[in-house]
Amino acid sequence: MVSIFMKKPCKDHLLAAKRILRYVKGTLECGILFPTTKENFEIEIIDCTDADWSEDIGDRKSTYGYMFMLGNAPISWCSKKQEVVALSSCEAEYISAAFGARQAL
């Protein structure tokens, strides 16, 4: 969210960026752990997609996101603003699912 204000940032955006950096600094010991495989153990890939319909009041575009997990570990994720204006929450979710399917392929 902070990056959308790069053209014309203000003091609030700087404070938000500093807060993000403090959060990252405080969580350096955290990491992503991949499960170990055991005999007769299937690893499944799980895909989750979601959209927030018309979140941005300025241009009425929705934000979508997806995340792929291998077992319990995230391996791919994305959060972006949709390129088109969705006319309903159902359409925004459909666009999100389509982007998630494209990533899966």
Characterise the protein shown here.
The structure is a single chain. The chain has 105 residues and is an alpha+beta fold. The chain folds into 2 domains: 1-31; 33-104, no CATH class. Helices cover 30% and strands 24% of the residues. It contains 2 helices and 3 strands; from the N terminus they run αβββα. The chain has helices at residues 11-26, 89-104; strands spanning 45-52, 63-70, 73-81. The chain has a 3-stranded antiparallel beta sheet with strand order 1-2-3, with helices on one face. The longest helix is centred in the N-terminal third of the chain and has 16 residues, at 11-26. It is flat.
List keywords for this structure.
about 100 residues; alpha+beta; 2 domains; three-stranded antiparallel sheet; 2 helices; 3 strands; flat
Produce a short descriptive summary:
The chain is built from two helices and three strands, in the order H-E-E-E-H. The protein is of the alpha+beta class.
| Total domain units | 2
Report the average pLDDT across residues: 84
Strand order of the largest sheet: 1-2-3
Terminal CA distance: 27 Å
Count of DSSP helices? Answer: 2
Low-confidence region ranges: none
β content, as a range? Answer: 15-25%
**Order of helical and strand elements:** HEEEH
Number of strands: 3
Structural class call reads alpha+beta
Q: How is the biggest beta sheet arranged?
A: 3 strands, antiparallel
Helical amount: 25-40%
